[in-house]
Predict the 3D structure of the following.
Amino acid sequence: MKSELYSTHAEKYDAAVQDNIYNAQLERPTLQSMLSELSGANVLDLGCGSGVYAEFLINNGASKITCVDYSQEMVELVKRKFGERVKAYAQDLSIGLPDESSESFDVVICPLVIHYIENLTPLFKDISRVLKTGGYFAFSTHHPFTDFECSKSGNYFETELVQDVWNTIGKPVEVSYYRRSLTEIMDAITASGLSVTQLSEGQVSESVKTESPETYEYLSRNPNFIFIKCHK
Ligand SMILES: C[S@@+](CC[C@H](N)C(=O)[O-])C[C@H]1O[C@@H](n2cnc3c(N)ncnc32)[C@H](O)[C@@H]1O
C-alpha cells in the first residue's frame, strides 16, 4: 500500500527510525536476535524501507542482499547508501515475487510490512517458492491484539482497513493498514508450506527505562508487535 510516510517523507522516516523507541529499541533488536546464519547467506529484504536492515545484513556478513520496496524513494535511498553492495528495485509485494528464481535465497525477511498487504497468501506462497529448502522467512508486524483496539467493526476475525495518524516523523501523517487475526496470519503461513519455528511478542530494550520510563513501563506490559520465524 502506498503511503506518503514512505514516499514524500522517506528521508525523514529514515532519520526517525535510526534511534527511536518503537523501531530501534523494540522492533529491530527483537527481530534481529531471531536472524541466524547470516554469514555468507543470500538474503531477500522485502519492504526494505530506507535500508536499516540492509545495513545489519551487510554488517553480519550476508554475501548477497536483494532489497524490494513499493516506494521508489526508499529504493533510491538504499542505492545511494549501499551502492553495489545490494541489488534494490521497486515493486508491489502484493503480487508476489515474479522477478525472483525458485530455491534461490537462504533467508527472507519482511520487517513491518505485511500489515500493508490485503491478501497475504500470494506473497507467502512466493516467499516459500524462492526460499531454499532449509532456509527461513522471518517477519514482524503489528500485534493482532494491539490493532484490535482500532477496530471499527468490533469483529476481531474480520480483516479490516484501518486509517490512523502517526507522529513518527515529528508531525502527523495519515497512514492506512490492514488489521487481521492471528489465525489469518497462521493460515497464510501454513498454506504456503512453511512451518513456524519461533515466535516472539517483543522485548523493549533496557535503555528505554531511563530515556522514557512511562513508555518502558507500557511496552513491558503490552504487546505491540509480533515476530514470526518459519522454515521451509
Ligand atoms: C514500516 S516501513 C518498514 C521498512 C523497513 N522494513 C524497516 O523495518 O525499517 C514499511 C515499508 O513497506 C513498504 N511497503 C508497503 N506496502 C508495500 C507493498 N505492497 N509492496 C512493497 N513494499 C511495501 C513501504 O514503502 C515501507 O518502506
The mean pLDDT is 97. The radius of gyration is 17 Å. Residues 1, 6, 17, 47-49, 52-53, 69-71, 74, 92-94, 111-113, 116-117 surround S-adenosylmethionine (CB under 6 Å). The first helix runs from residue 10 to 17.
